[in-house]
Write a structure and sequence with these properties.
The protein is α+β, with helices and mostly antiparallel strands. The chain is built from 3 helices and 3 strands; from the N terminus they run βααββα.
């Protein structure tokens, strides 16, 4: 494997989203991630495909579904 996995800090500049928001999206399973224990990484190809396909919305639209 020759590609570097991205950290959420790496994605902050690219997406112009805060680290807290990216962490929240990763925990909800919206952002495609790879986990190494507590560390979260993002495959650049998976992220590009995610963006190209239009991403994924929050369940329930702009209003979060109540758990």
């Amino acid at each position: 494997m020759s590609k570097k996995l991205l950290t959420l800090r790496d994605l902050e500049e690219t997406t112009q989203l805060s680290y807290a928001r990216l962490t929240d999206l990763a925990r909800q399973g919206i952002l495609p991630t790879v986990r190494f224990g507590r560390q979260i990484r993002v495959d650049p190809d998976a992220f590009e495909e995610f963006v190209r396909s239009g991403g994924k919305g929050l369940p329930g639209g702009w209003r979060r579904e109540q758990l």
